[in-house]
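Might I ask for a little of your time on a matter of protein folding? The record follows directly beneath this note:
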Amino acid sequence: MKKTLKYHKLDKIRKKEFANKEFSRALEKLKEVDSNYTKKPLETSFNWNEIAADIKDVKGEWYFVAFQSIGSVNANFDLLSDAKKRAYHKAENHEGLLKYWSGEFNQNQECLSTCIWASRDNAVEASEKCQYTFAKKLANAIMKPMC
């Protein structure tokens, strides 16, 4: 009985790893399909149908984080861009990151960045890291509220 439970647990882990690899591979094609993606719903702003077609036989559950912002008049975009880059490099080495995508600030000082994680736990753990905390504090200091 113990061997059977251990086998099922291992099998579940292997299936999740396979699903994550396949999804990560498909996400290499992720791109915006609407130049006004900062204002449009996420589900229509990206090529999700193409991604879904690539993983139609893969079952899984993932965690999507989006950070949408509008810069204030006095925002230091060089400083914010540097903080975003450092946070991304930290995320690259963090377990569970499947995809990081970030747009540039547009003419209205709007920007959208996203991360897709293997699990919520991975996303929460990464968000507590120093570079993320710094980037969030910096963004809060120089960005206008979205509401």
About this structure: DSSP finds six helices and four strands in the chain. The domain at 2-144 is CATH 3.30.70.100 (Alpha-Beta Plaits).
